[in-house]
Amino acid sequence: MELRALLAGRSSKRQLFFLPGGLERHLKIKTCTVALDVVKEICAEMALSRPEAFDEYVIFLVTNGGQHVCPLSRCTYILDVASEMEQVDSSYMLWFRRVLWDQPLKFENELYVTMHYNQVLPDYLKGLFSSVPTGRPSEQQLQQVSKLASLQHRAKDHFYLPSVREVQQYIPAQLYGTMAGSAWLNLISQHRQQTQAISPHQARAQFLGLLSASPMFGSSFFFIQSCSNLAVPAPSILAVNQNGLNFLSIETHELMVKFPLKEIQSTWTQRPTASSSYPYVEIVLGDVAAQGTMQLQLEQGLELCRVVAVHVENLLSAREKQLTLPPSEITLL
């Protein structure tokens, strides 16, 4: 493919990449440009220069109107992908997203803060970062949710007090329904003086800082249709993060079952069967002595496999680094 592009006289082009929230970056790519090069260039704009940071971001190929999301390996030639997609699906998109969240958040760079804010906001508004209370939320939860709502309003560069309709857009639906809209508005107004004194950039940074303490912050979420493991409720929500595979209740978002990363031996996808419209992912869990296979049914099978692989590779890399360090430095990890 790379040779074909060269023979066609096409050695470079301006390629569009989408960051969370619809942010766009047009980058010049050449026949030798791979996904890692793009990650490095966008990271440089976010004032990130360490190799550890590059490992945390991935380029995704999105096709079929957003229905098919496939993470690209670090060595994939971008021009090859673009040339092929222009013939197969001209509406394709290339997304830049963070997958690993080991490195601490930074709040100085505006693009960095905006990109991360835009990535986590939709999952927050779905209520995925914390469990849903059965009754009225605790006072601490009410204060945090109202503060986060006030920060979202300021992040839009608004100074006025939000309307009840706007407030509803700033609060996860499961929580918003526990109180009247006017009660939420009253809580949010208590934070107005503080949030008015900061810039939209600072509001986004504070939002990230508060949300980063949530147990599922930094997770990639997947909707699981069914699971062969009887211990896993189905349907459920799968949160993949540095702690492993976390299956959450679809109603309360409480953690139901967890499998640590170190137990994951392999993953692979299976095509949909005649009786099913969704592909399967098979995950081998356990150790050398005892292993079992868990079969998951979901739409984003390839994405799940790649995200899990990124986390497992990171775990193995950390272990390898630990083994090669002198004893005096091991305790620093």
UniProtKB/TrEMBL annotation:
Ranges of residues in domain FERM: 12-333
CDD domains: FERM_B-lobe, FERM_C_MyoXV
PANTHER family cross-referenced by the UniProt entry: MYOSIN VII, XV, MYOSIN XVA
Organism: Molossus molossus
SUPFAM superfamilies on file: Second domain of FERM
Residues spanning the membrane: none
One GO cellular component term: cytoplasm
Protein name: Myosin XVA
